[in-house]
Amino acid sequence: DGGITQSPKYLFRKEGQNVTLSCEQNLNHDAMYWYRQDPGQGLRLIYYSQIVNDFQKGDIAEGYSVSREKKESFPLTVTSAQKNPTAFYLCASSRGTGIYNEQFFGPGTRLTVL
Amino acid sequence: QKEVEQNSGPLSVPEGAIASLNCTYSDRGSQSFFWYRQYSGKSPELIMSIYSNGDKEDGRFTAQLNKASQYVSLLIRDSQPSDSATYLCAVNVRWGSGGGADGLTFGKGTHLIIQP
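C-alpha cells for the assembled complex are given below, as produced in the milestone run.
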C-alpha cells in the first residue's frame, strides 16, 4: 500500500525546544517537500529536496532544518529559532521536479507551542 | 512574486447544481495546473491536473484552462454535500535561477459549501 506517512499526528512543543517531524514515503519518488499551512492561508514552502543528500530552502526556511539521507525519508526539525511555529505541517512528494510534477501529500502534523 | 489568486468564499451551492471555482495566476510561463480538495483538518488531495488549453473532464469534475487569460477553473457537476471542502488551485513555477526546479505555488483556496 503505497503512500506518504507523517508522524506524529499531533505535537506539542515547549518554548525553546527543538522538535522533529517525520515524513516517510514508499512511492519511490525522488522529490520531497515540506509546507506549512496557517488558518486561512495558502501552503508556504519551507524546504524541498530533488534528490538524496540535496535540499533547497523554500520561502520560509528560517528556523527550520531538514536532512535527506535516504530517498524514503525527509524529516523536518523545527528549532527554537522559529518564533511562531504553531501550524499544520504537510509533507509532499512527487516523481520529479519537472513541469508535470504532481505532488501528493501526507496526512500532516499539527504542531502547537505551549 | 508569482501569485495564484482565488476567491476565498464561502461559495454556497445547492445540492445537484454546478459549482464553479475560479483561479488566476500571474506567471505567464506556467505550464501545468492542479486542483486539490482539502477537507477541514485534513491534508490536500489531488483531484485534477490540466496542461493544455481547453477542458478536461473526469467524472463529475471538469477543469478548464485559458493560458491567454491566465485563468483556470474547476466545475463540479451534480454537487453533493460530500463535495463541501476547500479547493486549492496550484500552478507550476520555476524555483531558483538557471537550472532550478519546477515547483508549485498554491492559492489560499475557495471554501465550497453544498447545501442539501
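Chain A is about 0% helix and 50% strand. The radius of gyration of chain A is 13 Å. Further analysis is deferred to the final report.
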